[in-house]
Write a structure and sequence with these properties.
This protein has about 350 residues and is of the alpha+beta class. The protein has eight helices and 14 strands. Strands 1, 4, 5, 6, 7, 8, 9 and 14 form an eight-stranded mixed beta sheet that branches. A four-stranded antiparallel beta sheet has the order 11-12-10-13. A two-stranded antiparallel sheet has the order 2-3. It binds ligand DP6.
Length: about 350
């Protein structure tokens, strides 16, 4: 689709900061065009963010190739530029103007590179929010900006669909959640007790090594996993149970479900064909210590994991100083180079210029 000729030569710049998120009910397994096999729910984080700036200029006509440069943390990065060009071509049905724009994109993360922290959710959501803003400048207003941004983010990386809302986000069709959809995530912060909006997430970095099996490969292995169907069913059941206990601020049940979800995710990896293990001995040591500390102190802290060995320690804000002491005395020695990223439930993306 050619853009209105009066726009030719116009240019602008948009910057979005968008956070990472941590799933409580995990998305693991997908089909078709980035559709999830089960519903998922996540906390939006506050500190682990990508900051992405897109400079754009409207060209005279559609180009054969995507016109794009990409600068990551101060350096031209051709490998990322190629990935993004491919992504842009794959969403031409959504943004038919995308080959008539020249993009200079730069991006950085607030969390250090190579800490094993996946940046696809923050990076893809920040980029998609920029694209939706450019769409409104050149092609007209979107009916629901954040829903559209969530849908575009999903196409870049499934979990990114959940990063565009404050506090909590839910993604994937679920019989008990009206408005839920496989196409985009929906905001979910208002559906749970206030206590969860203050939750902390301290990310204990067990290993900074690149994962032996990427998430993309891990999702694909679910297609031949003999336990896949029962996993998808139990994830959806856990979603119902988790929502109920989060409404009631029933932390005991919350802890039970969140930890079981994390371990079930890793159990799927262990029974994939071929099988693989992403947890490390130090991951298990920390899990045992967290459970022991919880039994002894009755402090409602729990762990979750993403597709890697790092521990996400989740707990209500009021226990922060006690848990700092617990980390220093009992957990820090099991991290690589004393690496911790201290994060908490956050307010969602922010546009920092127009
Ligand atoms: C274990 O969203 O990274 O973190 O859609 O292939 O980009 P792609 O995968 P991705 O998978 C995330 C998996 C997870 C669980 C979750 O975030 O729900």
């Amino acid at each position: 689709m050619a853009l209105n000729s009066s726009l030719v030569g116009t240019s602008g710049k948009v910057t979005f900061e968008s956070p990472s998120n941590i799933a409580l009910v995990k998305y693991w397994g997908k089909y078709g065009r980035q559709m999830p096999q089960n519903a998922s729910l996540s906390f939006t984080l506050q500190n682990a963010k990508s900051i992405t700036t897109c400079e754009y200029e409207v060209l005279e006509e559609q180009q054969e190739k995507i016109q794009l440069t990409f600068n990551f943390e101060g350096k031209e990065n051709d490998a990322f530029a190629n990935k993004i060009s491919k992504f842009f071509l794959s969403i031409e049905d959504i943004f038919p103007w995308i080959r008539q724009i020249k993009f200079n994109i730069s991006s950085e993360n607030t969390f250090p590179h190579s800490t094993g922290i996946a940046s696809s959710a923050s990076a893809m959501s920040a980029l998609s929010l920029c694209l939706c803003t450019i769409h409104e400048k050149v092609a007209g207003k979107l009916d629901d900006f954040f829903q559209h941004a969530s849908m575009v983010s999903r196409l870049g990386s499934g979990s990114a669909s959940r990063s565009v809302y404050p506090h909590l986000a839910q993604w994937g069709k679920h019989p008990n959640i009206s408005n839920s959809s496989n196409e985009f995530a929906i905001p979910f912060g208002d559906e749970v007790d206030e206590i969860f909006k203050g939750f902390h997430d301290d990310i204990l970095i067990v290993s900074k090594k690149e994962k032996s099996v990427s998430s993309t490969a891990g999702h694909a292995l679910m297609d031949s996993n003999p336990y896949a169907e029962s996993r998808y069913k139990s994830a959806n059941e856990n979603m119902s149970l988790l929502i109920k206990c989060m409404k009631e601020a029933d932390l005991e049940t919350f802890i039970e479900i969140v930890e079981r979800e994390a371990l079930t995710l890793h159990a799927q990896m262990m029974c994939s064909k071929p099988s693989y293990i992403l947890m490390e001995p130090n991951t298990l040591e920390m899990i045992n210590r967290i459970r022991k500390y919880r039994n002894e102190t009755k402090i409602p802290l729990c762990f979750t994991l993403d597709a890697g060995p790092n521990i996400h320690l989740l707990y209500p804000a009021k226990y922060a100083s006690k848990i700092d002491g617990f980390i220093d005395n009992q957990l820090i020695e099991f991290t690589q180079d004393d690496s911790i990223i201290r994060d908490r439930v956050g307010f969602g993306p922010q546009k920092t210029n127009s």
